[in-house]
């Protein structure tokens, strides 16, 4: 493993603009963030969008406009969230794929999510996986708990490899209700990932204060990194995050220190089986 894929998750569905004014919520804010994060070393953007009132939405017109604008302005791999917000119905989450992103997230199970429940029934997972295969959309399998890696193994065993043929997993650690953001939990996942198809890659992100331990653990275990204000709005104790760029710059710095410098968008596409544009 010679380099590091850095994913930026700039917005998410949970943080409110009123509470965190630096959160990018308009298309202009998102595109500007994307350009600056790409320049700092990000190669994937994990996208949730907001409506005119800065509330999370899966509006099809906005999703399509977002994909088009990010493609026009950057070379980033555009990964739409099919997870949305915990309140989004399955039909809207499936319809995210109609906006034709290059990648989309695909969560491997139901998990308590703070005070809510992030629902991912087996039949829904199979439907998402199959539709992505049909449309040539490369999934990022989101893992919130160790057992979800066994679900992924079952999914691939029954329904085959994803579009592009490469399996990429993202460990989302430290969600209240999911696995903790610890080195021990990451090591357990890394062991389980060895049972997935040869060449499977993983990235990891730690929610809130677990961001740094998870980043260091992932780099040391050969994993890639996801950072962004979807997951972390505190840079250090008592110090709010100023921008997504601050988080990407820190991740790129850690990756350099680990002698696994950020991969270009072209190299990330080659690694993940995402076609070159
Ligand atoms: N917002 C969470 C409920 C994803 O993007 O696929 C789900 C989430 C996962 O963020
Ligand atoms: Zn997300």
What descriptors fit this protein?
eight-stranded parallel β-barrel, two-stranded antiparallel sheet, 19% strand, 277 residues, 38% helix, single chain, binds zinc ion, binds (5S)-5-amino-3-OXO-hexanoic acid, 9 helices, alpha/beta
Protein architecture, described:
The longest helix has 14 residues, at 27-40. The mean pLDDT is 98. α1 (27-40) packs parallel to α2 and α1 packs parallel to α8. The chain has 9 helices and 14 strands. Helix content is 38%, strand content 19%. The protein has helices spanning 27-40, 60-73, 90-95, 122-135, 147-159, 183-193, 211-220, 244-257, 265-272, and strands at 6-8, 44-47, 49-50, 56-57, 77-80, 103-107, 111-113, 116-118, 138-143, 168-173, 201-206, 224-227, 234-236, 239-240. With 277 residues, the chain is α/β, with parallel strands linked by helices. The radius of gyration is 17 Å and the shape is globular. It starts with 5 loop residues before the first strand and ends in a 5-residue tail after the last helix. The protein has an 8-stranded parallel barrel with strand order 1-2-5-6-9-10-11-12, surrounded by 8 helices. A two-stranded antiparallel ribbon has the order 3-4. Bound molecules: (5S)-5-amino-3-OXO-hexanoic acid (KMH) and zinc ion.
